[in-house]
Amino acid sequence: MVKVLAILYSGGQSAKEEPRLLGTIENQLGIANWLKEQGHELVVTDDKEGSSSEFQKHLPDTEILITTPFHPGYLTADLIEKAPKLKLCVTAGVGSDHIDLNAANKHKITVAEVSGSNVVSVAEHVLMTILTLVRNFVPAHEQIVNDDWNVAAVARNAFDLEGKVVGTVGAGRIGYRVLQRLQPFDCKELLWFDYADLPPDAAKAIKARRVEKLEDFVAQCDVITINCPLHEQTRGLFNKELISKMKPGSWLINTARGAIADRTAVKEALASGHLRGYGGDVWDVQPAPQDHPWRHSFNPLNGGNAMVPHCEFFSPARCVWVMADGFDKTLVPLSTPRSDTLKAPRKSSADTSKARSKIPSISSSLMASTRPRLTASARPKRRKSARRRLPSKMAIGSFSCR
């Protein structure tokens, strides 16, 4: 028997009504019944903070930990020391900065995530946030729900995306797709900053220009979107000094990780008008406390805030497709008795096929609810030009891995 601990978020009534919200404690990633049938133990909780939490209570005898970037169980070096049986940490999403990777490596703990699963959803959210800020949408909408009507108050701070210089910090899976989606807007120029270069054909396809120095990059952009991973080199990257080098009245979008931007520097830049707007869905602490400054940060015209909970990674249909596709192609059952779960011999194709047939509702009822969009013929083909193989040292230090 293997003990699996999953740190998920509470979805409440919404999760009960929508079974495709797999990352909730109510729907348990869609694997609860299957694990039980295989004789394994699954503990699911959203209680993750403090020494008395369910997370820390169950961690010492946990062998597999599943957590998420949007409701992370922060696995520090100290906690890893208290988890001698832990062999595998799975991030049900993209980005494992909530795990001390050096400590995990020291203890020979495998860390895995669902790379590429969210690229379309995030890229679309970035584009939406850009338009929300540039067009000054939120104050206009608030007028309606507050029974108000003041066109001039909205129009004075609304602009066109056409003719603007838009750039991405990080031109990986997400940043590249953002640049693709900006093509029809007739921007003055599209820029990108990244330590890793794009293949020539990929750069040519998006008609974007690389800027090699970050300071030069931010000084040229009207709109900047952050699409890079969080690591030692990017933590606090957009601090007071770097933001001061951005164009006055520019917009900053962050859907990567909240800690890449300094919370105080962003708030002060908005209040002064140096930043016209800041938006995204990532926070340096998640869930964000009620007194987090980004909840109530505005520009001098009382706009410029497009912050939402960490939700851009997700659409129910895509989540189901990723889970089902992964189970169908790669799942090897844990049910065979063995002394070391992670060093088991590879199953024969017959054994694997038999195990797949036992996987419950993910590939049947849930998949059925998303057809026909999720049939094999309907799945979009990946653009070869957008994919890059980076050397291992670049994969750690690069801006483009997300």
Automatic annotation (TrEMBL):
Sorted alphabetically, the Gene Ontology BP terms of this entry are: monocarboxylic acid metabolic process
Q: Which domain of life is it from?
A: Eukaryota
Query: Which UniProt keyword terms apply here?
Result: NAD, Oxidoreductase
Gene3D superfamilies the UniProt entry points to: NAD(P)-binding Rossmann-like Domain (3.40.50.720)
Q: Where is the composition biased (Basic residues)?
A: 379-391
The segment annotated Disordered runs over 334-402
UniProt keyword Glycosyltransferase present: no
What would you give as a GO molecular function for this chain, any one? oxidoreductase activity, acting on the CH-OH group of donors, NAD or NADP as acceptor
Species lineage, top-down? Answer: Eukaryota, Fungi, Dikarya, Basidiomycota, Agaricomycotina
Protein name per UniProt: Formate dehydrogenase
Recorded source organism is Cryptococcus amylolentus CBS 6039
**Which GO cellular component term is one of those annotated?**
cytosol
- D-isomer specific 2-hydroxyacid dehydrogenase NAD-binding domain location: 127-297
